[in-house]
Amino acid sequence: MLDIDSLNEPQREAVLCTEGPLLVLAGAGSGKTRVLTYRIAHMVQDLNVPPWQIMAITFTNKAANEMRERLGRLVGPSARGMWVSTFHSMCVRILRVDCELLGFSKSFTIYDDDDTKRLLKDVMAGLDLDPKRWPVNSIRGKISQAKNELKAPGVYADEARDPVSKVTARVYAVYQERLKMANAFDFDDLLMYTYLLFKNHPDVLEAYQDRFRYLLVDEYQDTNHAQYAITKLLAAKHQNIMVVGDDDQSIYSWRGADIRNILEFEQDYPQARSIKLEQNYRSSGNILNAANAVVAHNTKRKQKRLFTESGDGEKILVYMASDERDEGRWIAGEIDKLHNEGVSYEEMAVFYRTNAQSRSLEDMLLRAGVPYRIVGGTKFFDRAEIRDVIAYLTLCINPADDMAAKRVINQPRRGIGKTTIEHIENVARNSNLTFMQAAEWCLADETLQMRTRNAIGGFVGLINDAQSYGGELRKVIEAVIDRSQLIQALEQERTDEAESRIENIKEFLSVVDEYVESHEIDESALPPEGINLLADTRQLSPDSLEDFLEWVRLRTDLDAATDDDQFVTLMTVHSSKGLEFDCVFVAGMEETLFPHSNSSRDPQGLEEERRLAYVAITRARKRLYLTCAYARQIFGETHANPVSRFVGEIPSELRKSAGLGSSGFAGTGWEKRGSRRGISGSGKEAGGGRVFGQSSAGGTRPRSYTGRTSPNAEKKSAARVTFAVGDIVDHKTFGRGRVTKVDGDTLHIKFSKGNVTKKLLKDYAPIVKINL
Ligand SMILES: Nc1ncnc2c1ncn2[C@@H]1O[C@H](COP(=O)(O)OP(=O)(O)OP(=O)(O)O)[C@@H](O)[C@H]1O
Ligand SMILES: [Mg+2]
């Protein structure tokens, strides 16, 4: 039963106001997401709104899953019929039904970052553009921006004035053509084409408007223009749109998010009700006041009041480490202490501003035996062998995908060399064929040697056959992998590297199992007959290869790699949005890192960094730790930077200090470091030991000692602290096992189940060390 009484007055008002446009603009932890969820539950349970008329949009798949689970608890199984998804997933579902109207076929592929970059490089090479002069990343950024602003190549070209924009316009036009030929969308296309579909096909739009009478969008402050425009079209007819957000938490402007979307909601919908929430239920007083004090330094913001009725709680602990290793070690020690006091690992998180910082933190956590997981762990899917498998699978459903075809035509080696591939490409270009079609054509091309033609024939036959495989998903995927000969080729290499690649491909099969288990179709959740829009857009099917690939592609770097819960979470501040933890550590609170030097030069960038600090601080419920290092290795150089200004912006009575010279900088002493200049050089000069007389930091050690760069050093570190022969581990699938050999990143583990030994990559395998 829905307990509306547990809500405060304005929260209840927002839940009960179910018709017409509604804006909830409120600070962190004030219950915006809770209100949005309760409002849906109220509509379904108390007002009998059919669940399939509801569309809720969240920022990450993880947030969507959480919301779906919560709704499941609140309203029971009927919750399954509603769409709770990210913008991108929503667009994929819509495009799967109607993309033919835009000239695509339903088996389209979604290109991720890597595919996108490869295709762009290809296009730029074709246009004779020197990648040194025109870095592919910046061109990609500009194209992405254009798409987020809904500018088609023609419009973009008309507006291009400066040389970079002109070059971008040329690349953009060809790139779009190539995507279309490959029957592929990049991430930004998903939004842009959905918009175009709605814009150019009013009947389609109207069908969706009538189906989704109720639209709810969380984290609205971070929507970009395309998302804004789609929402606006969808809501135009019935105007039942609720958006919630916080202008102080807008942290994605670098990706095209436009804070005006929230600030101008009232102008877009003159009838809109606007509700403010002012009570924070998440954080203790000191933490909330610290967050308020920091964000108050921003000038461009709507003034907001945010109070809490929970007590002051603990002060914020600021730790000054001698270097990043000391920082990691201290954090690991505190986590251990908290854990001994009864705080579970999943209630703790470590945030950092940039991904590069995670390495030293991870290393220290590993050494201390603290189980952790990294959000943003899509790296498994980025591995070459996994990409190969995905390319084969992709070709089975979309043989027009040229990038996939080129990736695996000679992977494993079939004797189809570079010249032959170029020859096929030329045929494709000249005859307007896809790469696969051109390859098939080349079978009869007598300018090619018989041996080459046979090799091409083998590949073409493989893909043609694989397209007809049917039955259970896992069986189909196994058959494709088997037919591809990827594993057999790796087996012949007989190297440890190849062994671990084989293990990874096998691990991929457990990903398939995970997908199948979590996507059992629930017929009862489908809307009634007659709502034929849904004919194709039901839940992802556990049997469909196409749906599986879609699921793989849409796992974003913001989604947790695993939902297992006995882990401390490591993540960037960006990906922490919307989440909460009892204890939060924010590492690297130094100028140039946080605020980041890329953004802090202009006032707008600095304000966004400050909002990011606000997001970080407001994730903590009970305890907040901010750490900084006197000296830090960044990309092989030692830097000493002043403590972040954001620390200084927290009133001194709310914080206490620990670590280096802690007696000196409880208050104003902080700012003195502001004058110290960065030093660079070898790690020796900046080592904690010599400069500060603290030997615990051990900063004189060469950097490679911690890392995966030197196999020798790695052996030492793995054997000493991380994993050693004899360690007992627990694997998610294989259960208990014992480490029998440590070889660089690879662990040889003998599992009791089936008495088998497996070689697993310590960074990727789902294993935890058990301290007996
Ligand atoms: N009326 C209430 N009574 C008790 N707990 C509440 C109430 N409202 C919200 N909470 C709790 O406060 C915490 C913060 O709520 P929620 O995550 O919905 O805030 P939010 O405004 O969405 O935060 P953010 O801006 O960080 O996304 C949650 O643990 C939620 O369950
Ligand atoms: Mg929220």
Compact summary:
Helices cover 44% and strands 14% of the residues. With 772 residues, the protein is an alpha/beta fold. It has 5 domains: 9-98 and 192-277, P-loop containing nucleotide triphosphate hydrolases (Rossmann fold); 109-182, Arc Repressor Mutant, subunit A (Orthogonal Bundle); 307-375 and 566-659, P-loop containing nucleotide triphosphate hydrolases (Rossmann fold, 3-Layer(aba) Sandwich), CATH 3.40.50.300; 381-519, PCRA, domain 4, CATH 1.10.486.10; 727-769, SH3 type barrels (Roll).
Explain the overall architecture.
With 772 residues, the protein is an alpha/beta fold. It has five domains: 9-98 and 192-277, P-loop containing nucleotide triphosphate hydrolases (Rossmann fold, 3-Layer(aba) Sandwich); 109-182, Arc Repressor Mutant, subunit A (Orthogonal Bundle), CATH 1.10.10.160; 307-375 and 566-659, P-loop containing nucleotide triphosphate hydrolases (Rossmann fold, 3-Layer(aba) Sandwich); 381-519, PCRA, domain 4; 727-769, SH3 type barrels (Roll). Helix content is 44%, strand content 14%. It has a seven-stranded parallel beta sheet. A six-stranded parallel beta sheet has the order 3-2-6-7-1-8, sandwiched between helices. Strands 21-20-19-18-22 form a five-stranded antiparallel beta sheet. A hairpin with a 4-residue loop joins strand 20 and strand 21. The two termini are 44 Å apart. Mean pLDDT is 84; it is low at 534-538 and 664-721. Bound molecules: adenosine-5'-triphosphate and magnesium ion. Residues 665-718 are annotated as: Disordered. Keywords: ATP-binding, DNA-binding, Helicase, Hydrolase, Isomerase, Nucleotide-binding. It comes from Slackia heliotrinireducens (strain ATCC 29202 / DSM 20476 / NCTC 11029 / RHS 1) (Peptococcus heliotrinreducens).
